Amino acid sequence: MEFALVVVLSIVLLILGIIGTILPILPGLVLSLAGLLIYKFGTDAELSMVYIWVFVALTLASVVLSYVIPAKTTKKYGGTRWGSIGSVVGTIVGMFIPIPLGFLIGMFAGVFIGELLHDSKDTTKAWKSTKGALIGFLYGTGFSFVVGVAMFLVVILDLLNI
């Protein structure tokens, strides 16, 4: 492929990946990683393989953390194991519900329902646990966003030979 076409395709994928870290419709870091790989192997870039392996590891970590962090912060905000399990189950179920932000709604509903199944009389605790899940989601999203921007910057800096 022509150099300019490869670079444009890479940058488009990197930008879509960054957007995807915020909008769950797109596969976020997977797109960014694809853009990075296309740039590395589709051009004569002198980008070190260390970058590739680090970003592969960070992408895999992000996928895992997007499930683990909300469950852990749910517990930190007083949630029980029921809320943590509800968070994971709700996220997975929400991905298959054809509505915008279904996974997010599923996660919050899962935490809330899980806590109510544990103690149906303590709705305050269920809401606090749901707040913890929201904070965890924001942490996970922030992590993914930073990794996506870092991939973008690595490519841009390499293009500018900095």
Q: How would you describe this protein?
A:
- The structure is a single chain.
- The chain is mostly helical and 162 residues long.
- The chain is built from six helices and no strands.
- Helix 1 runs antiparallel to helix 2 and helix 5 (102-118) packs antiparallel against helix 6.
How would you briefly describe this protein structure?
By secondary structure, the protein is mainly alpha-helical. Helix content is 81%, strand content 0%. It has helices spanning 3-22, 29-42, 49-76, 81-95, 102-118, 123-159.
Major sheet size, sense and barrel closure: none
Strand runs, count: 0
What separation lies between the terminal Cα atoms?
Answer: 24 Å
Number of helices: 6
Radius of gyration: 19 Å
Please bin the fraction of helical residues.
over 70%
* Amount of beta strand: under 5%
Q: Name the poorly predicted regions.
A: none
Q: What letter string, H or E per element, gives the SSE order?
A: HHHHHH
Report the structural category: mainly alpha
State the shape. Answer: elongated
Instruction: Summarize model confidence as the mean pLDDT.
Output: 89
Features:
mainly alpha, 6 helices, 162 residues
Chart the SSEs and their pairings:
Blueprint: H1 3-22, H2 29-42, H3 49-76, H4 81-95, H5 102-118, H6 123-159
Helix pairs in contact: 1-2, 1-6, 2-3, 2-6, 3-4, 3-6, 4-5, 5-6
